[in-house]
Amino acid sequence: MKHIAILSDTHGLLRPEVLARLEKADVILHAGDINTQAIVDRLRALGTLYIVRGNNDKEWAEDLPHSQTFTVEGVRFFMVHNKKDVPKDLPGVDVVVFGHSHRYAMEDRDGVLWLNPGSCGRRRFGQEITFAMMTAEEGRYQVEKVVLSHEVP
Known about the structure:
Layout: E1 2-7, H1 16-22, E2 27-30, H2 37-46, E3 48-51, E4 67-72, E5 75-80, E6 95-97, E7 105-109, E8 112-116, E9 129-137, E10 140-148
Parallel strand pairs: 1-2, 2-3, 5-6, 6-8
Antiparallel strand pairs: 1-9, 4-5, 7-8, 9-10
């Protein structure tokens, strides 16, 4: 079994309560709008990282992919920052991860989970501060929504 942390839209802030959960994760997914190489380096130091470039990730992030397809514990993922950039045909995918809106969303579409972990960086638009934790094993998964305090450390 793998523990997977799923983030998006950190916008230059890794909160201590997020880092505490990331340290227990086997795999970290970040769906873009990271804003600094320092956060990428910190996440890579924690373990296996899958990351995509967001619309606010400028020149420093040119080497980051705009989308990725990968498998963890038999669960097949497609990840992109903006949902509008998801291809119409995604055969063989179990979970689509995206960000951009800063709003947590989880929806089953014809057997495919569409998951936006929300934003766990700076609070914007008066929305919740969230990310997701997932456990995956042998092609099955469970998702937990994590809601954080609005306090900035």
